[in-house]
Here is the input.
Amino acid sequence: MGQKTLGIILNTSPYTFQNSHTFYDLCKAVLAKGYGVKVFLFVDGVNNAKLNQDPDPDRPMNEKFMELANEGVDFQACGLCTSARGFDQRGSDFIEGMEVSGLTELAEQVGEVDRFVSFSP
Here is the structure.
């Protein structure tokens, strides 16, 4: 039997709701328990992984996302959502390790994980 995995879709931007901070804390707790985490950033959620954030005095969310990616969290961002928000589709606007994908990949992710959580407004 393989590693248990939690799937998460994050639909909200980093500083509008508490969702991104709660998402980060949940990922840290799940990783500490030895679980895998697969994340799909959708709608305004794609803004969480954008480079060069400066939300003084908060720690930038993109730094927290980089930390999670370095700890093994698998990140994907919706390609249509990133295009609509002016992101470079080659990925240069994102943290390292971000994959720009589509809803087909989200559907695959939902089928692969043991549990799925949604953070929405």
Summary: The longest helix spans residues 19-32. The chain has a mean pLDDT of 93. The chain is about 35% helix and 20% strand. The first strand starts at residue 5 and ends at 10.
